[in-house]
Every structure is written in C-alpha cells, then in structure tokens.
Amino acid sequence: MRADNLAPVEYREEAGAGMLRACAVACRRDLLVAFRHRQDIVNPLVFFVIVVSLFPLGVSPDLDFLREAGAGIIWVAALLAILLSLGNLFRNDYEDGTLEQWVLSPQPLFVLVLVRVLTNWMVAIVPLLLLVPVLGLMVHLPADLIGVLTLTLVLGTPVLILVGAIGAALTVSVRSSGVLLALIILPLYVPVLIFGTGAVAAAADNVPIVGHLAILGAMLALAITLAPLAIAAALRMSVASG
Amino acid sequence: MSEVLLEASSLYCERDDRVLFSQLNLQIRPGTLIRVAGPNGTGKTTLLRILAGLSSFYEGRLLWQGRPLWQVRESYLANLLFLGHRPAITPSLTPLENLAAFTGVRRRNTRAELLDALAAAGLEHFEDIPAHHLSAGQQRRIALARLYLSTAPLWILDEAFTAIDRDGVRALEALLRARVDAGGAVILTTHHELSLPGCEIITLGEDGL
Fold this sequence. Notes:
The structure holds 2 protein chains of 2 kinds.
Chain A: H1 19-36, H2 38-58, H3 63-86, H4 91-96, H5 98-103, H6 109-138, H7 143-170, H8 178-204, H9 210-241
Chain B: E1 6-15, E2 18-28, E3 33-37, H1 44-52, E4 59-64, E5 67-68, H2 73-78, E6 80-83, H3 95-104, H4 111-120, H5 136-149, E7 154-158, H6 166-181, E8 185-189, E9 200-203
Parallel strand pairs in B: 3-8, 3-9, 6-7, 7-8
Antiparallel strand pairs in B: 1-2, 1-4, 4-5
Helix pairs in contact in B: 3-4, 3-5, 4-5
C-alpha cells in the first residue's frame, strides 16, 4: 500500500454522483451478481414448473378440471416461486455489510431499493412470465385466456415482489426467516391473487375484465410508490439492530 | 482551534442492561486522528456505529459542523467514509467490480483511477479475480482501496486492519498520517499496535467513561 496518490479532502453538500448514474451503477452491479449466481434464478423457475405439473398428477388430469383451475394453479405457483426467491433478495448483502454501506450512501435509500427490486423482477420474474404460455397450454387454457393470464401476471408480479421485499427487509436480520417471511407476506398477497385470477375467470365468462386490470394497476401504482419507502425503513431498522 | 467537524456530547449507551458509556464527550477536528481503545465488549464498535449514524440506541447529542446530525444527514453522509467490521465485499464480484459498485454511487471515478487505487492497496494483478478466490487479507484490501478514492473529510474505520499483514499495516499507518496532514479527520479502532504520533486515545471500559 502506498500513501502518495491519495484523493484530496473535499467538503460536499451532496453526493458527487447524480442519482441516475448511481441507479445505473447499482443496476449494473445487481445484474452482474445475478449473472454470477445463475442457480438462484433457475431454481425458482424449475420450482414453478414442477408445482404446476403436480396438479394434473395429484388432483386430476381431467381437461374440464384443468381448464377451470389452470389459471389459479399458475398464479399460486408463481406466487410461491416469488416467495421462494425473496429470501435471497437482501440476505447476502446484509451479511457482508453491503447494506450498511447502502444506509450510509449519500443517495436516498429508497431509490437504491427500488433499483434492486426492479432488477430482481427483470432477472427472476420475466423468464417465469415467458414460461406461462407453455404451462398454460399444458393445463389446456384457451389461447385468449393465456393472454389474459400473462397480462395479469405482468401487472401482479411486481406488486408481489415489492410487497414481499418489505417482509424480506424486515426479516433480514432473523436467522432462518423462511417461514416467518411467508407468514408475514402471504396474507398480503391475497388481494393480488383474487383480482389476478378473477380477471381470468371473468374473461372465461366473457365479462369485461377492465375493472380487474384497473384494480391490479392501481395496486401496482401504490406498491411502486409506497413500498420502496417501507423497504428502506425496514432495512434501516434491520441494520441498526445488527 | 479549527472548526469542529463532528461533536458528540454526553453520549450514553447501554446494551443488555449494561452501561457501555455515559457522559462521553468527543470532538473531531480536521487533521486529527482519534483511536478508540479498550478491551473486547466495551462498546468501541457501538460507539463508531453511533457516530456514523447507523445506530440510534443512544442518548445525547451529535452535531455535524455545529448542526444536529439528523437535520443534515445527507450532507453528513456525503462527507463520511465508514469501513465496518463487515467489509461490504460481494464474494462473487471481482475487486474492480466491487470497488466500482461502492464508489459509483458516491462519486465519478474513471476506470484508471479505480485500477490505481487497487494497485495502491496491493491488489495489482488481482483486479479480475472473483473476491471469493482471494484471501481474507486481500478481501480486506479491496475495502481499504476505497480510502484512496475517498474525498470525505471524515473517516470512521472500525477494525480496518483485521487480517492485514505487517507491511500492509505499516503502509496503512503512512496512509493515515498523510490523510491527517492533508486535513482529514480519522477515528478508528484496532487491536494492532500502531505508531501514529499525535494520535488522541479514548479508552472505553474500566474507567467508566
């Protein structure tokens, strides 16, 4: 180590990097980490496929039953897959001290949090959404219902992951928090599930689905604006008690 | 007397019904080096975390440049570098990626500057090896490379010397001296014997500060 090329002492009123640049840096970093931990992305996907295929095997391969229950099965399986992936959202960063540095960074914490959650949605959930049409065919959903189902998942999964991140942030300092996280989060998932599957059921009955989609959209707007603040506050608490 | 950067007055903190310190007064001025000493479990890390604004389990007042810390938190954080027990190194990223992720949210640095800082920290030729393949000392050096890029007037270093070899510690002493001469302020804890002339020592523990 040398002492010659030290940066000078400078007093600042704010961070030297703009917020957009900081977001780009944080996003790039999260994508890199996701790329290096590919199994963390693949595992929930495989889980998703297996859960969906258990229903025809375990309940009934009857076409009428599958057509009736298919959308619900896929929704519940997606919800569980998301729940499974939430444990890793902040855990490693908490343990190696990165979260401490997040809290101490001059950028607003909720912005960094939003970047993390949206990046996670991109790398973990988008592949899952791409599988939905295939699984939809497997449970004999008609093509137009598969479209509606995918649309509700596109609107609903960001809500699930944003709300789930609040729970992940609250339980990040708790050892073996898996069940606790599920207990906190699953009740909050109920409205999203109801309106998500409700839209598909309405489409199957040829009833307009705009109302369902509007409510899902409203939940998404609420989650994307309020959840980052709650996640940031929960992370601050977890770091302060650690 | 130069202006006081960070001032703590009548700090009181207890943990698990045990008083760690009470009536602790502390002034950090530019160009000073303060070492918090004391046996294990006397609250050195707790004190540094309180000063960094990471913990709120305390009573007393903290002022940054004469204003209450909670009011000027953003400008305080823009002027602070904190290195904790946990080095904030992501094992799957390389030293270069780790450093870029850390400094990128704070300040613009060119790739050459990052490489320079890593070389200065003794990580030349290790820039592109994932951190989990490096030794504990080398991982700690990634964290220390941040010191070379930091313009922050106040450094809070909690056990930053852990796992660093003897030459590394000596170089770090030189680095800290250069920093203090340049007008920076440093407050640190360590169990290493350091030769830092002019270092102010605060002892926690027996004397019941």
